[in-house]
Amino acid sequence: MMKEDVISEEKDISLQGKLAKMYVVGLKAGYGKEIILKGMDLAIRDKSITAIMGPSGCGKTTLLRCLNRLHELSPNAFVSGKVLLDGVDIYSKHVDPVSVRRKVGMVFQKPNPFPTMSIFENAVAGLRLMGIKDKEKLNAAAERSLRLAFLWDEVKERLDRPATSLSGGQQQRLCIARALSIEPEVILMDEPCSALDPVATAKIEEAMFALKKQYTIVLVTHNSQQAARVSDYTAFLYMGELIEYGQTKQIFENPSNELTERYVTGKFG
Amino acid sequence: MTRLMDIGLEKLSRLVLDMADLAEKSVISSLQSYLAGKNDTQQLEQWSQELRKIQDEIGELSVEMIARHQPVASDLRFVKACMEIAYGFSRFGRYAYDISEVLELWHGFSRCRQDELREMIGMVTNMIRMSVEALARRDVQLGLQVFELDDKVDILFRKSMEKVSKNPNSIPECDIPLLLVMRYLERIADHAAYIGETVSYVVTGNSSI
Amino acid sequence: MELYTFENITSRRRVLKNRMMNILIYLTAFLALTPLILIIADAVVQGLPALSLSFLFSTPVPVGYQGGGIAPMIQGSAIMVAIASLISVPIGVTAGIFYSEWPESRISTLSSFSNDVLAEFPTMVIGIFAYATVVLATGTFSALAGGIALGIIMIPIVARTAEESLKAVPNSVKEASLALGIPRWKTVIYVVMNTAKGGLITGIILSIARAAGETAPLILTAGFSNSFVSNLLNPAGSISYLIYYYGISPYSSWHAIAWGAALILIAIMLSLSLTVRLIANVRTGLEVA
Fold first, then answer.
1. Whether the predicted pLDDT of C254 surpasses 70
2. Rounded mean pLDDT of chain A?
3. Cβ contact (<8 Å) for B75 and A265?
4. Number of domains forming the structure of chain A
5. In chain A, what residues touch B3 (CB-CB under 8 Å)?
């Protein structure tokens, strides 16, 4: 209980009524002997978009994958520290990692719909594999999540077509719908637009903006301008350490740390 | 590391400093010509127009920088500051011209009492020089000093106004031009103070003292 | 550097050389194709006269009589291949899953290695093994023994192709499933297998094609029979055995039947290969737009 209060004091700019959904406390992670995250404290505010930015290799993807316990599945991976979701440490021995991933969904850098399944099947894959068979429920869930992903209108006439018949941007929105269908509370996005063209990117950013009213979104991006456009809070990582965290407006108008200033203005070599 | 943006930012800097020099020259020239009894309204009008032109150029370049490069942090503050400072300097030129016009209308001002005016001229000239230097050197302290001097100018102006309004023996040919010129000087000082404040904004991101 | 025109001697020599190389390459490619063409041509020429609808559906007749067919042998081959598939597919696919999803385990590496060894085993030796076990235990040649022998031959092929198809499923698909909160075992069974089903099916079909053509192990296990299979513990005829048995006989009518059977076998092989090709092209599904 005490540690969480300490975090709010140190890193808090202004809660503005948005409580923290997740707290990262002393997170260390890496592979074998290589330490990627060197001990990090971070608060993720509820119902907002938190962007994690930094140069390549700074550990932002590793951080993201620690939030849904995906990191530990890689060979030789290690994690230490705590990650609190609604006050509960997801790394505690009593917590089932599978249940964590149901609450914390993920969208990956390269769109990865299940290739042998149709659009509809992809949208409800999570529910089906949880054992839900009721056709009406599945149909309703598919429509709901495809609407939230701003994809419904484009695919409602062809839900049975293979998922691979969609364009890259549409596939990514399908992946977002798939993640949404199991009704998570947090959505992690690992550079979701980096493989997409500007128009597709804009559509996804529009979807993100609408989604943040109901979900907590953590967005990793190497494009600091996307962070500036879309996020409410921005964290700047460098070499496995959290350099600065605050409201996006402040980070991009008047960053406190000189390293942050150099990064956002493009003075990094 | 030079970025694409730096070329534009540098040009913006040069334009602002050119404008600063011309604006300073304008005001000082008009004040000195008053003290010496000469007048060169035409030159000042020309300088004022040139300053307007440079202001427009700065405005256009700033917008281009924003459209092309989406500057952030200190770059963004710098671009915003340039646009505002350019406006300030163009005002310098305009007021310098206005002052010389007043002098044209009321020739023979030299026969009036001049000590308050001279005092104010001295202070404002100083403020202009300081603000331009603070800008060129990005000297936050110097900028803040200019800001503080503005209060003194305001006090001086108010005193003079009171004096005139309470003086039963006021001489219109002296007092009207006196107040007009002091008014312009007070405005010039205001802008110089704002420029000083802007230096702080560019460097530290804070605009209040 | 001047552009070479075709008037230039050096360039003409180069073009000539290029043309000669092309001809040489086409020649060697054609040469490699020749045996297959000759075999098929021979089989067609010799076997086509024997083919008819009754050939496919009637039983053999004694020498000298007209008509007759190889229906029992077709049935025998089919039954034995079916038995072999029932044995090899579950074992092979499970092994393939094990090798691809848990490659670090020592049992996995050991098993995978022995699997590779078994794949290269002479099928005759597998036949002897089946003889020594099943035939001696049951006291008779049988379709069951033949099926078991073929099954053992099929296992490593199924396992290898299953392993490869599963490995070919991109990691991103597995991660997508895991990130949805789908436990590992469900991910493997419902997502990975589903994605690899094209490859799995082609693997099974290929191993069936291989097994259908085996002769040596059947000599030692299933023996031969002229009648339809009624009891799995009785000897059973097969297409490949028939080709051997009738082929070395002194009767020219039997030679013709053998050629006919050979043509049937070739036709089965070709159609299985084509099916595999079609499946591979249509249902790969691993291409992302």
1. yes
2. 90
3. yes
4. 1
5. 265-267
Stated as kind and residue range, the H or E segment containing A21 is strand A20-31
- Phi and psi (nearest 5°) for A30? 175, -165
Contact B144, B209 (CB under 8 A): yes
Is A269 within 8 Å of chain B by CB? yes
Q: Which residue of A has its CA nearest to B201?
A: A254
Query: Helix C143-167 and helix C123-130: axis angle, to 10°?
Result: 130
State how far the Cα of A126 lies from the Cα of C180, in Å rounded to an integer: 6
Q: Which helix (H) or strand (E) holds A45?
A: strand A34-45
H or E, element range at A189: strand A186-190
Domain boundaries, given as residue ranges, for chain B: 4-204
Name the residue ranges covered by the structural domains of chain C.
9-50, 57-282
Q: CATH code for C57-282?
A: 1.10.3720.10
* Residue A267 with chain B: CB contacts under 8 Å: 1, 3
- What is the CA angle A7-A12-A16, rounded to 5? 130
Contact C163, C99 (CB under 8 A): yes
Closest among B6, B73, B193, B71 to A260, alpha carbons compared: B73
Dump pLDDT digits (tens) for A222-238. 999 999 999 999 999 99
- Output the CA–CA distances (angstroms, integers) from residue A145 to A122, A141, C98, C256, in the order listed: 11, 6, 35, 67
Residue A174 lies in a domain: no
Within an 8 Å CB–CB cutoff, is residue A108 touching chain C?
Answer: yes
Interface of C with A in 96-115 (CB under 8 A): 104
DSSP state for residue B133 in the 8-state scheme: H
- All residues of chain C having their beta carbon less than 8 Å from the beta carbon of residue A171 are 288-289
Alpha carbon distance A16, B161 (integer Å): 49
Name beta bridge partners: A241.
A238
Q: How many Cβ atoms from other residues are within 10 Å of residue C78's Cβ?
A: 15
- pLDDT band at B176, cuts 50/70/90? confident
Q: What is the pLDDT of residue A30?
A: 95
Helix, strand, coil % in chain C, rounded to nearest 5: 75, 0, 25
* Alpha-carbon gap, residue C71 to A128, rounded angstroms: 46
pLDDT at C4: 63
Q: What is the pTM of this model?
A: 0.81
ipTM, two decimals? 0.89
Selected for mutation to probe chain B from A229, A252, A265 (highest B CB count within 10 Å) is A265
Task: Please check whether the domain covering B4-204 is classified as CATH 1.20.58.220.
Answer: yes
Domain that holds residue A239: 2-113+186-264
Query: Rounded CA gap, B126 and B189, in Å?
Result: 10
Enumerate the residues of chain B whose CB falls inside 8 A of the CB of residue A266. 3, 5
Task: Find, in chain A, the residue whose alpha carbon is nearest to that of B2.
Answer: A267
